[in-house]
Amino acid sequence: MTSTETAVNLIVPQLIVGLGNPEPKYEQTRHNVGFMAVDLLARSWQISCAEHRKFHGVFGEGLAPNREKIRLLKPLTYMNRSGQSIRAVTDWYKLPPSSVLVVYDDMDLPVGRVRLRLSGSAGGHNGMKSTISHLGTQNFPRLRIGIGKPRSASTDSDTVSHVLGKFAPRENELISEVLYLVRDAIELSLKEGVEKAMSLYNGRSIVGSHS
């Protein structure tokens, strides 16, 4: 009985959302690491994704490594309206917010770090503000990928140019490895729950060969 109760309480994602902006000019920018993560999951799990008008995003479903059905989504509504796309999917499939794992960029984490949480505020991230607003709760898991802070962030335009800028060559090497770390953490969360993945991956750091 206890094991059944424990299994019921596990937070296991059924929909994985990567936040980003559409259009070629935003590809490979720091703000689009959520898109990059979903692209890697789709390749690794051999899930075909395509534009889905009803969901306002690029969407695909297939089997995850735990052999359960999983859905992948990249909202095409632009970052500030990400929640509109996410809500369209959760309404259609009747998914609870706790089954939605949102992957996005975080300036408060250095490049090379990831952080999983079961809930929390938007922390100033417009994509998360929209997601929280549309889901009507902060209680859904999220995985933040560190993009570091700009060297000078004296104005809002410095911050914007940082998040919409591309990674430096050395950062690109790190991000490639980080995305595989993200995939491993998500695969563990699918098999053993988000909390288990938090305990193993929140302390890890990818460090480049050159300091």
Shape descriptor = globular
N/C terminus separation = 51 Å
Q: What proportion of the residues is helical, as a percent range?
A: 25-40%
Oligomer: single chain
Number of helices, where a helix is a run of at least 4 consecutive DSSP H or I residues: 7
The helix/strand class is alpha/beta
**Strand/helix succession:** HEHEEEHEEHEHHH
Give the gist of this structure.
The chain has 211 residues and is α/β, with parallel strands linked by helices. The chain contains seven helices and seven strands; from the N terminus they run H-E-H-E-E-E-H-E-E-H-E-H-H-H.
Describe the structure.
With 211 residues, this protein is an alpha/beta fold. It contains seven helices and seven strands. It has helices spanning 2-9, 33-45, 82-93, 126-135, 156-163, 169-192, 194-201, and strands at 15-18, 50-52, 57-63, 69-75, 100-106, 114-117, 142-146. A seven-stranded mixed beta sheet has the order 2-3-4-1-5-7-6, sandwiched between helices. A hairpin with a 5-residue loop joins strand 3 and strand 4. The longest helix is centred in the last third of the chain and has 24 residues, at 169-192. It is globular, with a radius of gyration of 16 Å. The protein starts with a helix and ends in a 10-residue tail after the last helix.
